[in-house]
Amino acid sequence: MTTTAHLPDTEPPAPVRRRRRGDTERGVSRVFRWVSTGSAVLLLAVLAAVAIFLVQRGLPALTAPAERMRAEGGLPQGVDTFAQYIGPLVFGTLLAAAMALALATPVAVGIALFISHYAPRRLAAGIGYVVDLLAAIPSVVFGLWGGSTLAPVISTLWVWLAGVLDALPFLEVQATRTGRSLATAAVVLAVMVLPIITAVAREVFLQTPRLHEEAALALGATRWEVIKTAVLPFGRSGVISAAMLGLGRALGETMAVLMILSPGLLYSFQIFDAGQQQTIAANIASKFPEASGLAVNTLIATGLALFVITMAVNMLARWIVARRKDFSGAN
After folding, report:
1. Which of 139, 231, 250, 256 has the fewest CB atoms within 10 Å, i.e. the most exposed one?
2. Whole domain around residue 262: which residue ranges?
3. How many domains does the chain have?
4. Residue 216: how many CB atoms within 10 A of its CB?
């Protein structure tokens, strides 16, 4: 007689559900989308917080009567209202930034073209490394170099150039022998924004479609004609963007201008003379440590003006790039 062992009744194990690759990718995509959206919202929130702070703290100076501004606003002698105070500062800021951009952009574009289309690979890599390293130098170092080394040397050139221009019948140009003028500050600002414009323009030129260049060469174009007909049209909007980035850096630069420029509060095109112009950022840095009360509100209000100028420059740059994109060689 045989007996059979009865096995205990057990349920079969549940099937293991494997996560599909598509589900994982969708989850990662969802997380990335939320992180990107949160970063954009955070950036806008920070920008809005800065704007609110500037408006809130600068409003007392914008609405204060002339008597109170003269007594407590920290205005120079002979200046009665905030409008009279901010006007020459805006003029000096825009003039210095425009001069720096005019000096730096052609040189930066030339360097970028040399790196991307003329220099051998090893030499191009070395020059690119030097340009990137130049962007990492602190502004205070540029200020020390410009005030102690460049200004005494370049003052001779400014005096000679002022004498040549002053000989013209319709110009009256003066120059200081100390070299602490807006022209010297603009040269230093140009050196500071040069690596920014060069780096962006170089990357844009390297993105030129190879077929465009080969087509131009096949038609018998020289290297310069290839650059003129294929590379520059393709990178025009990128060069404009690079120039606007450099302009933003020049508008907000503080220490270098503060250490070089002998300030004034005039609407003057005497760029070789001392005591003529001043920039907003340098003026805030020089006066804020000793300011109190309404004088602090006055300086913050000038910072609001600089904020508005920077926003306007960026909006103008975006409009120019969007307008020129349809005419780019990439299309």
Report:
1. 139
2. 89-325
3. 1
4. 19
